[in-house]
Amino acid sequence: MRFLHTADWQLGMTRHFLAGDAQPRYSAARRDAVAGLKTLAAEVDAEFVVVAGDVFEHNQLAPQVIGQSLEVMRAIGIPVYLLPGNHDPLDASSVYTCALFQAECPDNVVVLDRPGVHEVRPGLQIVAAPWRSKAPTTDLVAEVLDGLSAADVTRLLVAHGGVDVLDPDRGRPSLIRLAGLERALADRLIHYAALGDKHSRTQVGDSGRVWYSGSPEVTNFDDVEAEPGYVLVVDIDETDPKHPVTIDARRVGRWRFLTLHSHVDTSRDIADLDMNLDLMTDKERTVVRLALTGSLTVTDRAALDACLDKYARLFAWLGLWERHTQLAVMPADGEFSGLGIGGFAAAAVDELVHTARTSDESGVDAQAALALLLRLADRGVA
Q1: d(C-alpha 356, C-alpha 187), whole Å
Q2: Taking every annotated instance into account, which residue ranges of this chain make up the domain Calcineurin-like phosphoesterase (predicted)?
Q3: Are 236 and 264 within one domain?
Q4: Which tens digit of pLDDT belongs to each residue from 231-289?
Q5: Domain range spanning residue 325?
Q6: Helix (H) or strand (E) run with residue 185 in it
Q7: Strand locations in 264-361 (E)
Q8: pTM for the full model?
């Protein structure tokens, strides 16, 4: 038996830093990742798809988002099982119970809207742990496993949330306790745990049967999500009493959210940064967050700004990671002597240079003014 394990589609997601046409393209890419499941399912001959929570970004969605999402799921062509998660819980305002969803939900889409066992076909069951609020007060997995007895069937757990061994706040009541999950696997109450919530592909424990698929399209930078953009192809041998599991991770995501650390002190460093950015492919689907450190002359800072302006037009987004950027700008001796400025204007430039060497807010303003002057004089253009 083979199926696709995916999660955290978060359809309707927006990223605050994306502007212009980048946001619509990113939203379309998230739908495209889901639409691509049709091709993948046909390629591997998957029987069905499980989505382990957070199908939607939240419950208050525009009708267009709901309609387009359901149409994409319809096109997958095989059964798709949706688990409500913390972003789209089964609360009073649930997207799954709204009139539009109810009216347009295709026949191949099934919402796992109650905890416990759901029959997929004879000999195959899904054990679901849906969220009914954004802040459960218990381990929902422990609740659905409690009282479950072994049977001559193949069972998949579909659940959402953090696992205690991976979460720094181990006292949270909603955390999934790995020890209980592994006991259920050892006792063959379940044979695989399809988890959602962690957006990076992650194996939990050593059994090889507990996985986060991660989000099929990136949602955060690489310091948070190490391996986003995957769907798991899961094989369970139903003919073997031990039900061995095989996992094949397939990359389907196309966008990248990258963090680039760079030390810039000289014009050569800026040229190297320019070359590194130039060599990056798929710029229109790449978000770059720069963590820059160093000490620059005003001339070099103007060249750096020109470089960043250039690539900000080419990438989906490019900007400074302010918390991790420390750039000191100090005017060099004689840096402005060749501008051909005299009289009152020269005195004003000298005053700006003096002010720019201070560390207060006026110094920052003076640095910006001098950099603009150099760019207007065509000396700081990269």
Answers
A1: 70
A2: 1-164
A3: no
A4: 999 999 999 999 999 999 999 999 999 999 999 999 999 999 999 999 999 999 999 99
A5: 256-330
A6: helix 178-186
A7: 286-296, 317-320, 326-329
A8: 0.87
